[in-house]
Amino acid sequence: MLKFDDQILGDAYCRHFERGPDDDTMVINMGPQHPSTHGVLRVVCELDGEYIKRAEPVLGYIHRMHEKMGETKTYWQFLPNMGRVDYLHAMGWAHTYVMAVEKLGGIEVPERAEYIRVIMTEMNRISSHLLWWGAYLLDLGAFTPIMYAFADREIMLDIMQDPTGSRLTYCYHRFGGVLKDLSPAVLESIRDWVKYQRERWPMYKDLVTDNVILRGRVENIGVIDKDMAIRYGATGPVARGSGINYDCRKNEPYSVYDRFDFDVPVHQEGDAFARYLVRVEEMEQSLRIIEQALDQIDKAEGKHIVKKAPKPTYKAPAGEVYMATEGARGKIGIHVASDGSKTPYRIKLRAPGYCNLSLFAELATGTILADAVSILGSIDLVIPEIDR
Amino acid sequence: MKERKKLTFWETVKRQWSLVVGLKVTGKNYIKPQITTHYPRQTVDNISTFKGHVQLVGKPKQPDVAKCICCMLCVTSCPSSCIKVVKMKPPKEDPIPEAAAPKDMPDAAQPAKQAPPKAKAPKTPVKWTLDFNLCSLCGTCVEVCPVKSIEYSNDSYLAGYSRKDFEYDLLADLKERAAKMPAPAPKKAPKAVEKETAEQAEA
Ligand code: SF4
Ligand code: SF4
């Protein structure tokens, strides 16, 4: 058995997690049922009074073997899985997967479909961030914000339900396009919603961002410096909150993202509040992208949403492909290896939350338990994505 | 953890003021009309675009017979293997009487020399079941169906006591729906019927 001295921080399984040499410490489990662990994350902590001496996330409570499933299902059949990997940003994952297969098979995507994908992905990003916003404040003990966030999110889901038919685990992307066109009525309602959502930000700011209680709970808490973020491979708002100006949409443009003018919010502080601000500002930027996409969509070439869809028994040519996009939680990467048969030879999913969570063991050491909740929430975890 | 810096009096006041501002937002929302739905007394009205479980589509002239041609494409494409389609068995072969072949035909055209052609199975399903417990609502079955025999239902308020309740026999379901459908209007409706339907519509 591993001795305490040999342990690498956050790197041993819980069965090796023993009390340290100090007499007055206590080992407790935070989660998997604790609300702040979003369902199924278990964190084993060694506490010295209120202070955390060590904390170690334990995964495996929701393992659904998506990657293995990818090897047994055809390219088509694997599509609905994407909505389940990260159920809050289903569009982002599906977008990455279809792009990977399209790159592999040289499938053409009509311009209109690209715009629709961007609009839907960005809307989904906002809905994901809104839910995070509400849930984070709920973790910190405020109940009202989640109600407001849900009310706003509901309007968005109603719009997205029209073309997709679902409200959470969308299966909307198809190889070579999308499932259904956005009707003029839907485009109009998106326009109206963008205006409405813009008017809501001041309310969010008044209610929460400027609130002294929130500031007290998140300012100077869980400071991740630039080096540490790079060391753990953090991406997305976590990295951008630590001063790393990296966004896949800007740095390695895919789809039609290079046609839009938007900023990448970056904050240097690296604390939980910086990550909070990055996400809030990102929602505003997503609105900008949607607005520009709405203006450009009618000028897009052709009216096709799928030009030539592959059959359900589609065989991708042998080869390997890697596709990376910017998800709501960071860089989504999908590596598909094909041997030329109907099913992929191997699929590897790179979930941003996994790298971001690995920061936690180092971050939480030395803080008090209440701050650990602030830190955990600020990383924006979706456990099914981490434990895919 | 960094040390918290000492606040001046005015800074403290400014910080406390943020609570008043927040309270104002809560107050405003408090007097707004209610936006939640009092389910089950009320239901939402955006169900028409909802992608419910799949159901069969009847032929335009025979609404109780599915359009399905048993091509099995939906079964192949379904990621969850929740669709089962059973084709109708071919009818029992009757031995073809040899006398049926015309005698004056040249030898090559004599059908009797080949094996009698097998009777083709009718392209009608006898069983079409959906195990909705497993369905992931991906919608690929609807998309790949060559004759558009499947569509989404608007059934969203589902409840049951066991998993068995969600194993649907969609052929029976189609018959049931067809029976409830108003009969297609005959081309020249007798006046009495027209009157009746008009009365019904008014009522
Ligand atoms: S919607 Fe998808 S999972 Fe459901 S029956 Fe159709 S193909 Fe199968
Ligand atoms: S794809 Fe359509 S026609 Fe083919 S078996 Fe399924 S329902 Fe029948």
TrEMBL record, chain A:
Residues 139-388 form the NADH-quinone oxidoreductase subunit D domain. It is found in: Cell membrane. It comes from the Bacteria. It is a peripheral membrane protein. It is an enzyme of class 7 (translocase). Pfam families: Complex1_49kDa. The chain crosses the membrane at residues 130-151. GO terms for cellular component: plasma membrane. Its EC number is 7.1.1.-. The keyword Repeat does not apply. GO terms for molecular function: NAD binding; NADH dehydrogenase (quinone) (non-electrogenic) activity; quinone binding. Keywords: Cell membrane, Membrane, NAD, Quinone, Translocase, Transmembrane, Transmembrane helix, Transport, Ubiquinone. Its main location: membrane. It catalyses: a quinone + NADH + 5 H(+)(in) = a quinol + NAD(+) + 4 H(+)(out). NDH-1 shuttles electrons from NADH, via FMN and iron-sulfur (Fe-S) centers, to quinones in the respiratory chain. The immediate electron acceptor for the enzyme in this species is believed to be ubiquinone. Couples the redox reaction to proton translocation (for every two electrons transferred, four hydrogen ions are translocated across the cytoplasmic membrane), and thus conserves the redox energy in a proton gradient. NDH-1 is composed of 14 different subunits. Subunits NuoB, C, D, E, F, and G constitute the peripheral sector of the complex. NCBIfam families: PRK06075.1. Belongs to the complex I 49 kDa subunit family. This is NADH-quinone oxidoreductase subunit D. The lineage of its organism: Bacteria, Pseudomonadati, Thermodesulfobacteriota, Desulfovibrionia, Desulfovibrionales.
TrEMBL record, chain B:
Residues 93-122, 179-203 are annotated as: Disordered. One of its GO terms (cellular component) is membrane. Residues 191-203 have a biased composition (Basic and acidic residues). InterPro entries: 4Fe4S_Fe-S-bd, 4Fe4S_Fe_S_CS, NADH_quinone_OxRdtase_chainI. One of its GO terms (molecular function) is 4 iron, 4 sulfur cluster binding. Residues 58-88, 126-155 form the 4Fe-4S ferredoxin-type domain. Keywords: 4Fe-4S, Iron, Iron-sulfur, Metal-binding, Repeat. Residues 108-118 have a biased composition (Low complexity). PANTHER family: NADH DEHYDROGENASE UBIQUINONE IRON-SULFUR PROTEIN 8, MITOCHONDRIAL. This is 4Fe-4S ferredoxin iron-sulfur binding domain protein. It comes from Desulfovibrio ferrophilus.
